[in-house]
């Protein structure tokens, strides 16, 4: 083969190209008008300007793919940083990774950015996008990088970290929290990206970055700056606080508009806002961040959630247990939590010479209940269940309403079974979990099977048996699922069940995990049929995850308009005038006899105002009564939709309401 020809594979097909051909040229040759904005070359994400070598495997990366979106968003973060340094030359650069739906960039600036600042930054960004500056990659030595970035102390610090951060993370992988350092220096070599003027080729700006990037700033179809916030450098309170600017970027204006519409909808549904408006719960600062209290109305919803869960668990053969909130340190030494999980725990208190910890998990206590006496194979599986309250130290930056709290109650179950029972138990568990979630009104599920990670404990044969059993359960369930290869915890593979809510957001809810670690650490056993002592398998299972979190998710799913069975007030009686109060009180009494939560609005407000109040409180049924209704022994329904149904005999009204509550339907 002549030396100036390269044999490459393009999207699975062999091609011959000239030496010096870039990934972008090769893709354009194959497909005039290609929509690729980057390429995967031998599995690595590369710029379109990347020069190919003989034998390369090249795949196009389009802007709408998850890699493409990350590249778009991260490239927009560069434009943001360039605009900020143009307008605020004293601003020093932190990091700027892509995140879900957007990106951020951190800056060290003397003063926080104002909303006006954001406007002018965004304007400057639009100019840079219009200019069509070219993103251009250049490999530099440590020494060169230090010289070029001498005025950027945070970048200098990152150069010093090269190789020690996030090197295993795929380029362009969405950074969670403060994991963005890998965007800058995660690779084997240091690279700087220059922004070059479209006409003169002059350098307009540069950043330490591993890339890849869009070919030019003009390839950014739609973006918007969203908000600012404070963020500690590298996520540690010991470091300086930087100013973070968040933005979003999309492959089209339409996609961006759709996202902004969804955000607006999500804001209306924000459970923290609804929790206050509907008087459900609050977070008194006197108690502390992430520690909610439930008000009577929220208490009713919560009790309805729990009661139904209890009833279903009872029917499914679970036994109910109760355990304390604090424990001596020995328990968490045995379980290993103090070794692996101490950062997530509240600090201990010293009592009578012992250290007591608030518990972050219930598992070890359930194991002690199992171990409290000898167990025979005949009584397995043992299914223990508890609404167990745990305390976890979440950083104040991540605490978020009920969905990420510091104290919460898990609907926690631990199942002890023989190896033979594992497969059947997991299958029926998954069925149970999904069936119960459906009853709470969730309809769309996806599962994820996380398998053995590189670092693990236990025998490979055990892992394989457990993974096969989890996979069997998933296949039998008919749920759509993906396999997250190597994503399991080091002690166990697991299934996570994700749900989609009413506006299409995905929430991770239930977890089923097969544990190889804890039964051995505690040395628990059962006597097998042949008289030998065997170690049981242990399955961790949380269905809601935490009741508080589930409560928050359901509140947002229903936008506070709970189905009748969960609504704190199911019926409000609204008299047309004072003369009809007494009549409605008798209707209310009859409804209460059927267990319905009903109030009669006897305030001085006019009828229209009472209707508006009930609507704001999202009460499922308003029962109106005037002279005609009283004369006919009837009521008039007004539903949340505004629809009205007049002259319904009281008996029929009661039947309609109790029927809807019993069947747990939404109205
Ligand atoms: Zn970059
Ligand atoms: Zn557990």
Core attributes:
667 residues; alpha+beta; 8-stranded mixed sheet; 5-stranded mixed sheet; 33 strands; 34% helix; 28% strand; globular; binds zinc ion
Description of the molecule:
With 667 residues, the chain is an alpha+beta fold. Strands 16-20-21-28-25-24-22-23 form an 8-stranded mixed β-sheet. A hairpin with an 8-residue loop joins β12 and β13. α8 crosses α16. The radius of gyration is 30 Å and the shape is globular. The N and C termini lie far apart (73 Å).
What topology emerges from the helices and strands here?
Blueprint: E1 5-10, E2 13-18, H1 23-30, E3 36-41, E4 44-46, E5 57-62, H2 66-87, E6 92-93, E7 98-99, E8 102-108, H3 115-131, E9 134-140, H4 142-148, H5 153-161, H6 181-185, E10 190-196, E11 203-208, E12 222-232, E13 241-250, H7 253-269, H8 271-277, E14 281-282, E15 293-294, H9 296-315, E16 319-320, E17 326-328, H10 329-335, H11 337-340, E18 349-351, E19 354-358, H12 363-370, E20 382-391, E21 407-417, H13 422-439, E22 444-450, H14 460-477, E23 481-484, E24 494-500, E25 506-515, H15 518-522, E26 526-527, E27 533-534, E28 537-546, H16 547-557, E29 571-575, H17 581-593, E30 598-600, H18 607-616, E31 621-625, H19 627-632, E32 634-639, E33 644-649, H20 650-663
Parallel strand pairs: 1-5, 16-20, 22-23, 29-30, 29-31
Antiparallel strand pairs: 1-2, 3-4, 3-5, 6-8, 7-8, 8-13, 9-10, 10-11, 12-13, 14-15, 17-19, 18-19, 20-21, 21-28, 22-24, 24-25, 25-28, 26-27, 31-32, 32-33
Bound molecules: zinc ion (2 copies).
One zinc ion (ZN) is lined by residues 361, 363, 414, 540.
């Amino acid at each position: 083969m002549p030396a100036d020809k390269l044999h490459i594979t393009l999207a699975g097909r062999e091609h011959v190209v000239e030496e010096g051909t870039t990934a972008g040229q090769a893709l354009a040759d194959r497909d005039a008008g290609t929509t690729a904005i980057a390429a995967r070359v031998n599995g690595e994400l590369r710029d379109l300007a990347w020069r190919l070598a003989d034998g390369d495997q090249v795949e196009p990366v389009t802007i709408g793919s998850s890699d493409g979106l990350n590249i778009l968003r991260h490239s927009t973060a560069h434009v943001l940083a360039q605009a900020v340094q143009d307008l605020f030359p004293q601003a020093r650069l932190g990091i700027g990774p892509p995140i879900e739906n957007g990106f951020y960039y951190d800056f060290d600036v003397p003063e926080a950015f104002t909303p006006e600042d954001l406007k002018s930054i965004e304007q400057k960004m639009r100019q840079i996008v219009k200019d069509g500056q070219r993103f251009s990659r250049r490999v530099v030595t440590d020494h060169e990088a230090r010289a070029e970035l001498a005025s950027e102390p945070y970048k200098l610090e990152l150069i010093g970290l090269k190789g020690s951060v996030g090197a295993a993370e795929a380029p362009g992988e969405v950074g969670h929290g403060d994991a963005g350092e890998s965007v800058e220096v995660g690779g084997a070599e240091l690279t700087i990206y220059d922004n070059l003027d479209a006409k003169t080729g002059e350098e307009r700006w540069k950043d330490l970055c591993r890339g890849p990037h869009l070919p030019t700033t003009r390839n950014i179809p739609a973006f918007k700056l969203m908000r600012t916030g404070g963020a500690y450098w590298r996520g540690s309170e010991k470091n300086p606080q930087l100013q973070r600017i968040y933005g979003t970027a999309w492959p089209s204006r339409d996609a961006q508009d759709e996202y902004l519409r969804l955000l607006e909808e999500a804001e209306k549904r924000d459970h923290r806002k609804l929790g206050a408006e509907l008087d459900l719960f609050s977070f008194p600062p006197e108690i502390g961040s992430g520690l909610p209290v439930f008000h009577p109305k929220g208490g009713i919803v919560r009790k309805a959630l729990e009661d139904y869960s209890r009833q279903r668990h009872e029917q499914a053969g679970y036994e109910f247990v109760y355990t304390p909130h604090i424990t001596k340190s020995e328990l968490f030494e045995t379980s290993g939590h103090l070794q692996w999980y101490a950062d997530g725990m509240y600090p201990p208190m010293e009592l009578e010479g012992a250290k007591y910890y608030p518990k972050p998990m219930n598992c070890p206590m359930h194991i002690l209940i199992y171990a409290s006496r000898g167990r025979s194979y005949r009584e397995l599986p043992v299914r223990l269940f508890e609404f167990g309250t745990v305390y976890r130290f979440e950083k104040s930056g991540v605490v978020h309403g009920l969905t990420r709290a510091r104290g919460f109650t898990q609907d926690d179950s631990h199942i002890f079974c023989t190896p033979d029972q594992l497969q059947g138990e997991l299958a029926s568990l998954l069925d149970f979990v999904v069936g119960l979630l459906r009853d709470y009104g969730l309809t769309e599920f996806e599962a994820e099977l996380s398998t053995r990670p590189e670092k693990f404990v236990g025998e490979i044969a055990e892992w394989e048996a457990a993974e096969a059993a989890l996979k069997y359960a998933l296949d039998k369930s008919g749920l759509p699922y993906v396999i997250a290869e190597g994503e399991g915890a080091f002690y166990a593979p697991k299934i996570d069940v994700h749900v989609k809510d009413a506006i299409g957001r995905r929430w991770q809810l239930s977890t089923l995990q097969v544990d190889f670690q804890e039964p051995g650490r505690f040395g628990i056993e059962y006597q097998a049929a042949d008289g030998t002592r065997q170690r049981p398998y242990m399955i961790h299972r949380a269905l809601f995850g935490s009741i508080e979190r589930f409560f928050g998710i359901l509140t947002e799913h229903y936008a506070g308009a709970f189905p009748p069975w969960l609504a704190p007030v199911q019926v409000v009686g609204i008299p047309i005038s004072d003369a009809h109060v007494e009549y409605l009180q008798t209707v209310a009494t009859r409804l209460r006899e059927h267990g319905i939560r009903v109030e009669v609005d006897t305030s001085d407000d006019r009828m229209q105002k009472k209707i508006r109040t009930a609507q704001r409180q999202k009460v499922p049924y308003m029962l109106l009564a005037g002279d005609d209704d009283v004369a006919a022994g009837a009521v008039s329904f007004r539903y949340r939709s505004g629809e009205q149904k007049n002259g319904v005999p009281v008996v029929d009204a009661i039947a309609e309401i109790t029927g809807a509550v019993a069947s747990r339907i939404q109205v």
